[in-house]
Amino acid sequence: MENLTELLVELIRRASTDLPSDVEGALRAARDREDPGSAAASTLTVILENVALARAHSRPICQDTGTPIFYVRFPAGMSIRELQAQMEAAIAEATRRAYLRPNAVDSITGRNSGNNLGIGFPTFYWEEGEDEILDVALLLKGGGSENVSAQYSLPDESLHAGRDLEGVRRVVLAAVQKAQGEGCAPGFLGICIGGDRGTGYSWAKKQLLRPLDDVNPVPELAALEERLLRECNELGIGPMGFGGKTTILGVKIGAAHRLPASFFVTVAYMCWACRRARMTVRGGEVTYS
Ligand code: SF4
Q1: Residue nearest to atom 7 of ligand 1 (CA)
Q2: Of 225, 168, 223, 224, which Cα lies nearest the Cα of 200?
Protein backbone atom coordinates (compact mmCIF):
# COMPACT_ATOMS: atom_id res chain seq x y z
CA MET A 1 0.00 0.00 0.00
CA GLU A 2 1.30 3.44 -0.97
CA ASN A 3 2.42 5.64 1.91
CA LEU A 4 -0.16 8.41 2.21
CA THR A 5 1.26 10.09 5.31
CA GLU A 6 2.37 13.32 3.63
CA LEU A 7 -0.95 13.62 1.77
CA LEU A 8 -2.76 13.18 5.09
CA VAL A 9 -0.61 15.87 6.72
CA GLU A 10 -1.80 18.20 3.98
CA LEU A 11 -5.42 17.21 4.71
CA ILE A 12 -4.87 18.08 8.38
CA ARG A 13 -3.19 21.37 7.50
CA ARG A 14 -6.12 22.37 5.31
CA ALA A 15 -8.68 21.40 7.95
CA SER A 16 -6.93 23.26 10.75
CA THR A 17 -5.87 26.44 8.95
CA ASP A 18 -8.71 27.15 6.54
CA LEU A 19 -12.50 27.07 6.76
CA PRO A 20 -14.70 25.41 4.15
CA SER A 21 -16.00 28.05 1.71
CA ASP A 22 -19.64 27.50 2.69
CA VAL A 23 -18.85 28.04 6.37
CA GLU A 24 -16.86 31.19 5.67
CA GLY A 25 -19.63 32.38 3.33
CA ALA A 26 -22.21 31.86 6.08
CA LEU A 27 -20.07 33.90 8.50
CA ARG A 28 -19.79 36.72 5.94
CA ALA A 29 -23.52 36.74 5.29
CA ALA A 30 -24.14 36.81 9.05
CA ARG A 31 -21.80 39.76 9.51
CA ASP A 32 -23.60 41.65 6.74
CA ARG A 33 -26.99 40.97 8.38
CA GLU A 34 -26.01 42.33 11.78
CA ASP A 35 -26.43 46.01 12.62
CA PRO A 36 -23.27 47.96 11.74
CA GLY A 37 -21.27 48.79 14.86
CA SER A 38 -23.03 46.20 17.00
CA ALA A 39 -21.12 43.74 19.18
CA ALA A 40 -22.39 40.97 16.90
CA ALA A 41 -21.04 42.65 13.76
CA SER A 42 -17.69 43.40 15.44
CA THR A 43 -17.35 39.82 16.67
CA LEU A 44 -18.03 38.38 13.25
CA THR A 45 -15.62 40.87 11.66
CA VAL A 46 -12.83 39.78 14.03
CA ILE A 47 -13.62 36.12 13.37
CA LEU A 48 -13.37 36.68 9.61
CA GLU A 49 -10.09 38.59 9.97
CA ASN A 50 -8.75 35.72 12.04
CA VAL A 51 -9.84 33.23 9.39
CA ALA A 52 -8.02 35.19 6.65
CA LEU A 53 -4.84 35.47 8.75
CA ALA A 54 -4.85 31.75 9.56
CA ARG A 55 -5.21 30.89 5.88
CA ALA A 56 -2.48 33.31 4.79
CA HIS A 57 0.03 32.02 7.34
CA SER A 58 -1.01 28.36 7.48
CA ARG A 59 -1.65 28.69 11.21
CA PRO A 60 -4.51 27.11 13.18
CA ILE A 61 -7.78 29.03 13.02
CA CYS A 62 -8.25 28.52 16.75
CA GLN A 63 -5.91 27.76 19.64
CA ASP A 64 -8.04 24.69 20.31
CA THR A 65 -7.45 22.58 17.24
CA GLY A 66 -10.05 20.11 18.47
CA THR A 67 -10.47 16.37 18.52
CA PRO A 68 -9.53 14.93 15.11
CA ILE A 69 -12.34 12.68 13.89
CA PHE A 70 -11.68 10.71 10.70
CA TYR A 71 -14.46 9.24 8.55
CA VAL A 72 -12.84 6.84 6.10
CA ARG A 73 -14.40 5.02 3.15
CA PHE A 74 -11.84 2.61 1.77
CA PRO A 75 -11.70 0.12 -1.12
CA ALA A 76 -12.08 -3.59 -0.42
CA GLY A 77 -8.74 -5.18 0.40
CA MET A 78 -7.09 -2.09 1.81
CA SER A 79 -5.55 -2.66 5.23
CA ILE A 80 -7.27 -0.62 7.93
CA ARG A 81 -4.33 -1.32 10.22
CA GLU A 82 -1.85 0.23 7.77
CA LEU A 83 -4.15 3.11 6.98
CA GLN A 84 -4.64 3.90 10.65
CA ALA A 85 -0.89 3.78 11.26
CA GLN A 86 -0.36 6.32 8.46
CA MET A 87 -3.10 8.55 9.81
CA GLU A 88 -1.58 8.46 13.28
CA ALA A 89 1.84 9.27 11.81
CA ALA A 90 0.25 12.18 9.94
CA ILE A 91 -1.38 13.48 13.12
CA ALA A 92 1.94 13.37 14.98
CA GLU A 93 3.75 15.10 12.12
CA ALA A 94 1.03 17.77 11.78
CA THR A 95 1.39 18.42 15.52
CA ARG A 96 5.15 18.73 15.15
CA ARG A 97 4.61 21.30 12.37
CA ALA A 98 2.17 23.21 14.65
CA TYR A 99 -0.86 22.68 12.43
CA LEU A 100 -2.39 21.07 15.50
CA ARG A 101 -1.94 21.96 19.17
CA PRO A 102 -1.02 18.94 21.33
CA ASN A 103 -4.47 18.16 22.66
CA ALA A 104 -4.48 14.56 23.88
CA VAL A 105 -4.40 14.48 27.68
CA ASP A 106 -4.34 11.35 29.85
CA SER A 107 -7.63 11.52 31.73
CA ILE A 108 -6.12 10.09 34.95
CA THR A 109 -2.68 11.69 35.15
CA GLY A 110 -3.42 14.85 33.17
CA ARG A 111 -0.24 14.24 31.16
CA ASN A 112 -0.29 15.51 27.59
CA SER A 113 0.97 12.92 25.10
CA GLY A 114 2.49 15.79 23.11
CA ASN A 115 1.61 14.44 19.69
CA ASN A 116 -2.20 14.18 19.65
CA LEU A 117 -2.07 10.40 19.94
CA GLY A 118 -3.61 8.49 22.81
CA ILE A 119 -6.26 5.99 23.79
CA GLY A 120 -9.20 6.57 21.44
CA PHE A 121 -7.48 9.68 20.14
CA PRO A 122 -7.89 10.49 17.28
CA THR A 123 -11.27 8.94 16.52
CA PHE A 124 -11.79 6.74 13.43
CA TYR A 125 -14.93 5.56 11.63
CA TRP A 126 -14.40 2.98 8.90
CA GLU A 127 -16.64 1.98 6.01
CA GLU A 128 -15.74 -0.35 3.14
CA GLY A 129 -16.83 1.13 -0.19
CA GLU A 130 -17.88 -0.66 -3.37
CA ASP A 131 -15.38 1.16 -5.61
CA GLU A 132 -11.64 1.81 -5.72
CA ILE A 133 -11.91 5.23 -4.12
CA LEU A 134 -10.33 6.16 -0.82
CA ASP A 135 -12.27 8.99 0.78
CA VAL A 136 -11.08 10.55 4.03
CA ALA A 137 -13.15 13.23 5.73
CA LEU A 138 -11.70 14.98 8.76
CA LEU A 139 -13.65 16.94 11.34
CA LEU A 140 -11.79 18.94 14.01
CA LYS A 141 -14.26 19.24 16.88
CA GLY A 142 -13.50 22.00 19.36
CA GLY A 143 -13.72 21.23 23.07
CA GLY A 144 -15.74 24.30 24.05
CA SER A 145 -18.45 23.36 21.60
CA GLU A 146 -18.31 19.76 22.78
CA ASN A 147 -19.03 20.98 26.32
CA VAL A 148 -22.42 22.40 25.28
CA SER A 149 -23.47 19.42 23.18
CA ALA A 150 -26.44 17.69 24.78
CA GLN A 151 -28.49 14.53 24.75
CA TYR A 152 -32.14 14.26 25.77
CA SER A 153 -34.24 11.24 26.54
CA LEU A 154 -37.80 11.83 25.43
CA PRO A 155 -40.37 12.30 26.75
CA ASP A 156 -38.97 15.20 28.76
CA GLU A 157 -41.76 16.57 30.89
CA SER A 158 -39.79 19.61 32.02
CA LEU A 159 -39.63 20.76 28.39
CA HIS A 160 -43.07 19.42 27.39
CA ALA A 161 -41.24 17.38 24.78
CA GLY A 162 -42.93 14.20 23.61
CA ARG A 163 -41.68 11.47 21.32
CA ASP A 164 -42.32 13.28 18.05
CA LEU A 165 -40.77 15.99 15.86
CA GLU A 166 -42.33 18.71 18.00
CA GLY A 167 -40.54 17.17 20.97
CA VAL A 168 -37.31 17.17 18.97
CA ARG A 169 -37.81 20.84 18.15
CA ARG A 170 -38.36 21.71 21.79
CA VAL A 171 -35.22 20.02 23.12
CA VAL A 172 -32.99 21.42 20.38
CA LEU A 173 -34.17 24.94 21.16
CA ALA A 174 -33.62 24.23 24.85
CA ALA A 175 -30.03 23.12 24.16
CA VAL A 176 -29.24 26.31 22.24
CA GLN A 177 -30.96 28.46 24.86
CA LYS A 178 -29.00 26.77 27.62
CA ALA A 179 -25.68 27.26 25.81
CA GLN A 180 -26.25 31.05 25.72
CA GLY A 181 -23.51 31.48 23.14
CA GLU A 182 -20.97 29.35 25.00
CA GLY A 183 -19.24 26.88 22.73
CA CYS A 184 -18.36 29.86 20.53
CA ALA A 185 -21.53 30.86 18.74
CA PRO A 186 -22.55 31.24 16.01
CA GLY A 187 -22.52 27.52 15.74
CA PHE A 188 -23.75 24.59 13.71
CA LEU A 189 -26.02 21.84 14.98
CA GLY A 190 -25.64 18.20 14.03
CA ILE A 191 -28.65 16.35 15.38
CA CYS A 192 -29.50 12.68 15.64
CA ILE A 193 -33.00 11.47 16.35
CA GLY A 194 -32.89 7.94 17.74
CA GLY A 195 -30.02 5.50 18.04
CA ASP A 196 -28.67 4.75 21.51
CA ARG A 197 -26.62 7.05 23.71
CA GLY A 198 -23.40 6.16 21.89
CA THR A 199 -24.55 6.08 18.29
CA GLY A 200 -26.63 9.20 18.92
CA TYR A 201 -23.51 11.29 19.33
CA SER A 202 -21.59 9.67 16.48
CA TRP A 203 -24.53 10.14 14.05
CA ALA A 204 -25.11 13.68 15.25
CA LYS A 205 -21.46 14.59 14.64
CA LYS A 206 -21.50 12.97 11.22
CA GLN A 207 -24.27 15.39 10.20
CA LEU A 208 -21.72 18.20 10.60
CA LEU A 209 -19.94 16.92 7.50
CA ARG A 210 -22.90 17.85 5.31
CA PRO A 211 -22.41 21.03 3.25
CA LEU A 212 -24.70 23.84 4.35
CA ASP A 213 -26.66 23.77 1.09
CA ASP A 214 -27.31 20.04 1.37
CA VAL A 215 -31.07 19.51 1.52
CA ASN A 216 -32.30 16.69 3.71
CA PRO A 217 -33.89 13.96 1.53
CA VAL A 218 -36.59 13.42 4.17
CA PRO A 219 -39.07 16.28 3.67
CA GLU A 220 -40.15 16.45 7.34
CA LEU A 221 -36.53 16.71 8.45
CA ALA A 222 -35.71 19.27 5.76
CA ALA A 223 -38.60 21.41 7.04
CA LEU A 224 -37.47 20.98 10.65
CA GLU A 225 -33.89 21.96 9.77
CA GLU A 226 -35.14 25.20 8.23
CA ARG A 227 -37.52 25.95 11.05
CA LEU A 228 -34.95 25.31 13.75
CA LEU A 229 -32.39 27.51 12.01
CA ARG A 230 -34.89 30.36 11.94
CA GLU A 231 -36.09 29.84 15.50
CA CYS A 232 -32.60 29.47 16.98
CA ASN A 233 -31.72 32.83 15.50
CA GLU A 234 -34.90 34.37 16.87
CA LEU A 235 -33.57 33.61 20.37
CA GLY A 236 -31.35 36.71 20.03
CA ILE A 237 -28.36 35.12 21.78
CA GLY A 238 -25.96 36.19 19.04
CA PRO A 239 -22.24 35.61 18.37
CA MET A 240 -20.47 34.59 21.61
CA GLY A 241 -23.70 35.43 23.46
CA PHE A 242 -23.35 39.18 22.86
CA GLY A 243 -26.84 39.42 21.36
CA GLY A 244 -27.77 39.69 17.71
CA LYS A 245 -29.47 37.99 14.82
CA THR A 246 -27.00 35.15 14.40
CA THR A 247 -26.82 32.34 16.94
CA ILE A 248 -26.77 29.31 14.62
CA LEU A 249 -25.54 29.08 11.01
CA GLY A 250 -26.73 25.62 10.05
CA VAL A 251 -28.90 22.75 11.29
CA LYS A 252 -28.53 19.20 9.96
CA ILE A 253 -30.64 16.31 11.21
CA GLY A 254 -30.30 12.57 10.75
CA ALA A 255 -32.51 9.80 12.10
CA ALA A 256 -31.38 6.36 13.23
CA HIS A 257 -33.47 3.40 14.28
CA ARG A 258 -33.98 3.05 18.03
CA LEU A 259 -35.32 0.62 20.57
CA PRO A 260 -39.03 0.95 21.39
CA ALA A 261 -38.03 1.77 24.96
CA SER A 262 -35.85 4.76 24.06
CA PHE A 263 -36.15 8.00 22.14
CA PHE A 264 -32.93 9.95 22.30
CA VAL A 265 -32.30 13.30 20.67
CA THR A 266 -28.63 14.18 20.47
CA VAL A 267 -27.37 17.64 19.66
CA ALA A 268 -23.74 17.90 18.56
CA TYR A 269 -22.95 21.58 18.85
CA MET A 270 -20.14 22.81 16.59
CA CYS A 271 -18.58 26.22 17.03
CA TRP A 272 -18.11 28.82 14.28
CA ALA A 273 -14.74 27.13 13.60
CA CYS A 274 -16.49 24.30 11.78
CA ARG A 275 -13.32 22.72 10.44
CA ARG A 276 -13.98 19.94 8.02
CA ALA A 277 -11.91 18.84 5.03
CA ARG A 278 -11.92 15.90 2.67
CA MET A 279 -9.27 14.04 0.69
CA THR A 280 -10.22 11.74 -2.16
CA VAL A 281 -7.79 9.36 -3.83
CA ARG A 282 -9.09 8.03 -7.15
CA GLY A 283 -6.85 6.09 -9.52
CA GLY A 284 -3.71 7.66 -8.06
CA GLU A 285 -5.15 11.17 -8.33
CA VAL A 286 -5.60 13.13 -5.11
CA THR A 287 -8.12 15.92 -4.63
CA TYR A 288 -8.92 18.00 -1.57
CA SER A 289 -12.24 19.68 -0.88
S1 SF4 B 1 -15.20 25.95 20.77
FE2 SF4 B 1 -14.33 26.18 18.71
S3 SF4 B 1 -13.89 28.37 18.41
FE4 SF4 B 1 -14.27 27.99 20.61
S5 SF4 B 1 -12.22 27.70 21.49
FE6 SF4 B 1 -13.01 25.67 20.97
S7 SF4 B 1 -12.32 25.23 18.87
FE8 SF4 B 1 -12.06 27.42 19.25
Answers
A1: 142
A2: 168
